[in-house]
Amino acid sequence: MTQTITKLKLYLEENNKVFDDEMFNFKLENNLDGNGDIIVFWNVSGLAQPTAEQIASYETAANEEEANNIIISTRKTAYGPWDKQLEEIYDNGIDSWKARILQIKTDNPKS
Fold this sequence. Notes:
By secondary structure, the chain is mainly alpha-helical. The protein has one domain. The chain is 56% helix and 10% strand. It has a two-stranded antiparallel sheet. The protein is elongated and about 55 Å long.
């Protein structure tokens, strides 16, 4: 089951609203009653608070987004920092670097 925050991010983006991690225009709360997160505050200009059904409709897309985020994180770790990649290109050539990056992408495919 995906996180409610991911579904709300998709809802906002689909409705041409910016999702900003640092300044939420809504607040979620979990009462630990087994029903998951609920919206306790919603202040998104020009966009109605989504219903539970609307949020649930993003389950599949949110699953894919969360899975891809894990893959992207894995890839970034395997790529290494930019300065090391540039050093690798200088020492071994661009073709060697491209082959390594391609192998990382092949080993960690996105959905």
